[in-house]
Structure formats: C-alpha cells, structure tokens
Specification:
Elements (H helix, E strand, L loop, with lengths): L11 H6 L15 H12 L5
C-alpha cells in the first residue's frame, strides 16, 4: 500500500482527530471515509503473511 499526500498541511490537533467519526477538514466531507478505512484495517489485522 502506498499513501501519497497531496492535500494542505494539517496541524497537530487535526492529525489527532483523523479517523474520528464525522470529523472532516473538507467543506463537503462527511468525516466517514478515514473512519471506515481504519475500521477495515483493524478488522483485517495483519493478514499479509
């Protein structure tokens, strides 16, 4: 997996809130995208072996 950052810089407080439900820095964001991705990764665990 490769993650590429093309967005604007985030401050420390914003970074700590990433993945929380309904948190978004976008004006049209729902704040659910990263939360869902975090949950999927947590559920799958490390099954890459």
């Amino acid at each position: 997996m490769e993650i590429i950052d093309t967005g604007v810089e985030m401050n420390e407080k914003q970074l700590l809130l990433l993945g929380n439900p309904l948190y978004s820095t976008k004006t049209k964001g729902t704040g659910l995208g990263l939360m869902v991705n975090y949950r999927i990764i947590e559920t799958l665990g490390d099954n890459s072996r």
